[in-house]
Amino acid sequence: MQFENQDDTICALSTAQGTGAIAIVRISGSKALEIAASISKKGPDAYVPNKSIFARIFKNDELLDETVITYFKNPSSFTGEDVIEIACHGSVYIQKELLKLLVQKGCRMANPGEFSFRAFLNKKMDLSQTEAIADLISSDSAASHRVAMNQMRGGFSEEIRELRQELLNFASLIELELDFSQEDVEFADRTALVELITKIDNRIRKLINSFQLGNVLKDGVPVAIIGPPNAGKSTLLNAILNEDKAIVSDIAGTTRDSIEDVINIGGVNFRFIDTAGIRKTKDVVENLGIQRSYDHIKKARIILYLMDLDSKTVSIEKLTERIASFRADSVHDDQELIPVFNKIDLNQNVSKEELSKLGIVISAKNKSGVNQLIEKLTKSVSLSDSDNIIVSNVRHFDVLNKSQQALEKVSFGLDNEIPGDLLAMDIREALDYLGEITGEVSNDELLGNIFGNFCIGK
Amino acid sequence: MLQEYDVIVVGGGHAGCEAALASAKLGSSTLLVTMNMGTIAQMSCNPAMGGVAKGQIVREIDALGGGSGYITDVSAIQFKMLNLSKGPAMWSPRAQSDRLRFAEEWRLLLEKTDNVDFWQDMVDGLIIEEGELKGVTTAMGMKIYSKAVVLTNGTFLNGLIHLGEKNFKGGRTGERASYGITEQLEGLGFESGRMKTGTPPRVDGRSLDYSKMEEQPGDDNPQKFSYRSTTQPLKEQRSCYITYTNNKTHEILRTGFDRSPMFNGAIKSVGPRYCPSIEDKINRFAERERHQIFAEPEGWNTIEIYVNGFSTSLPEDVQLEAMKTIPGFENVKMFRPGYAIEYDYFPPTQLSHSLETKLVENLFFAGQINGTTGYEEAASQGLIAGVNAHLKINGKDPFILSRSDAYIGVLIDDLITKGTKEPYRMFTSRAEFRILLRQDNADIRLTEMGNKIGLASNDQLEAVQKKLSRTKAIKRVLEKHSVSPEDVNPFLESIKSSPIKQKVKAQSVLLRPNITLNELMETSPELKEKILVAAENNEEAIQQAEIQIKYAGYISREQDNALKLNKLENVKIPADITYESFSSLSAEAVEKMNKIRPTTLGQASRISGVSPSDISVLMVYLGN
Fold first, then answer.
1. pTM above the 0.90 mark?
2. Distance in Å, alpha carbon of B6 to nearest chain A alpha carbon
3. B513 close contact with A: CB closer than 8 A
4. Which of A225, B371, B382, B585 could make a disulfide contact with B15, Cβ separation 3.0–4.6 Å?
5. Which CATH class is domain A219-380?
6. Fold adopted by A10-126
């Protein structure tokens, strides 16, 4: 178990997550002023306690944002330490880049409740307030853990766990050759270890890059709208978007390519991908579009599976079957499938009540049921990502960077053939950081692994 | 009949001897009660001290002022520094001992220690009057009074020996078991359990053919365990021999499985996973075609041989037939068969860091009674219990070593915080600050502490201070003295290290991997001269300076980590805390904390089932 130390400088977004007019990022700790000065190209002298100043923030000499910065000198601040509050523009991109910049400059992402915790430690709060904070800390830790687990979507978490397990096996082998060197044991193959470290390092680098704001958040949560031709996919998208971007016509197969649109719902960006309808056809161009539809399904986080009710032959049984087979064929465990039934206005044969047990019932044309769908979308994101999506991502970014630094030390040690006990120390550090993403590491874990897998003992 | 004592030590094994020596040296009148004065400091299992992690513990005992290092030196027949090819944290001294001399030297050391008395008898109970511990009762019907009692019963409490389908009561082969204490302690509310351990057969060395085995001699330049100048490195040594089992051996062993107490259900208790019996090894790792066997001499002159690697409780006829298939053992004659033994222990979570029981004041436990295995583990607990028994009855604060001070600190903290379900043995991987807990610096870490409580002598302290000042002087030479390309480049080129272009400080060359200080000294007579002067020709100081410079980066990182941990260690938890009143603690945390009653946040954080958020909650309450 690791407990974060209380001497370092921490940062976090203090306002609500998501897009807003402005956002406030708070920094607390002995280096707060120094860090603010370093990103704003203003010397520490420019900051006067309790005064707000205008400051441009630069990242690698490029202007990131124009902000207002307020300095609270210790002990007259919320936490009792030096505190800097940066009011920046409210775009998710700016918030995230700013936090990343602060982490680069030596801040650590605050744990949930940590500002309050420091306030307590510095006697800025009395004991009667502490029970509430204690509750907060324990509940938030559980929540943030869940968020962290959910965050590592696309199998990252599982993948890191597997890589970490491989590294743990190596750590065990190294411990084995250290503690049981006098016994008839096998030794850790350094060449294989180098390969493993390279593999993990590459993976971590990719993850770090993928969190460089590129994919997930800047572009929004990918939502694929899938369904047979003429089920009304484009009409649905338009109803959500409230504007006519996709071509809508009654001839099946009009949308031969995919069209993306980003819409902000409840502070979260959703990236809707309208896809070509899926059906069997000999049209080469259309088949290309269908192929792309399947590719989009793979990348999507949420799949809106649209079925139209404009047919006398539909029945609850058939629809249930269709959903099940689509789920089995095309939906991964980490994707959310939302069945959507369109054109309820044209069908009186199936009961709306029965349908709504299977999915969302709408009429895209009349815009009925669209609000329910939007609600469902919001809910499905907040369930898995909660509100902490940005902070958690930067925290991962932070931990991933530390893991990578530790792995570099291991590589360096392997290159220079340092003794096993020193190598073990570096590997343990890497395991600890990787463990922060997946769970935790302890000495017992290493020994358990040794006893479980190797024949030792005279 | 007997006088009242300050401290009674029950049991004369490694734990009991160190406990009696420590409490007596600190000034407490001490009575060592043992069932047989002829078996004081008997090595029940292998005739060896030290090894990986264990050697470090013996050095720590010596640095604190205990006896095991000295005894090992004066009774050793072979010395090896293990793991020399690894980093200095792994260097581990190990000695092969003369079993009889080891026991004799301990007895002589205790005999010449002021304040130690002896009594041969079996302690069968504690005298407890009005809830207070007053002494012990014995099988001869005696009542012996004392202020504190240290129990070091080893494998004797309700000991049950298994050999094939036979079993008989006993504490060691040929010795009686001890009765009464477990039952009384259970009546007082103690929880007890059963553990199992085993030992291999002893054979006639004259019946072995060493030409079929591989000789394993001691080190060419043997070192020693004790930091004190009262012992000398060995001049002559005896060799051990290595051989291997084979498929034929395994086949014969398997024929006895149906009569094995391990497999027929006669033994239910848990044995150590890292010290498995030979039947366990071939059963669990069936794919392995051979297992290593060491033929270890039991002493300078005796012909008795200890068959290390062949621990077993199979029927004696199977043991003998199986051994005969091992190269070199074709005509083996057996002296004593191997056997397994089950015994009572008390889960050590019932103790505090001083090794005093939480239930009965002034009662201390040390050694296998706490679920540990190994002479070194037992001896170190004995020392701590003896010291703390003395301190307690004199109203002084207990002597507690932290996890970053010593392996002994790791051992005791693990025991009382996590408990143990199998016999606990020390490994270097149990220590999170392994790089700091080295065999070369146990004196630097501990002798001052040992001297402060009155256990380590002033001579010991002076020796450490000298070592430190010499080390400092050598380091200064290396920082200041520049070496020239003409001097060092031939050497650097010979080991394929890139040559230097201009004069550089000696230290920067030493920092390169694969360069030792001795090699560097040889490149420049001037540097060598300066270092030898600074070291006052002391080898130990030269080695110390080298380690401190070469591993400085790792050492300082580890020290930072230790400092971080110590922050939590310094947050004390009040003894009367009511965990149930914290609504935010998990139910599991409340249960575990109530059981262990940790004294610091650091200790609480190591209890399994206590999460970081539980610690946060406590920290908030204890923060100010």
1. no
2. 39
3. yes
4. B382
5. alpha beta
6. Gyrase A; domain 2 (3.30.1360)
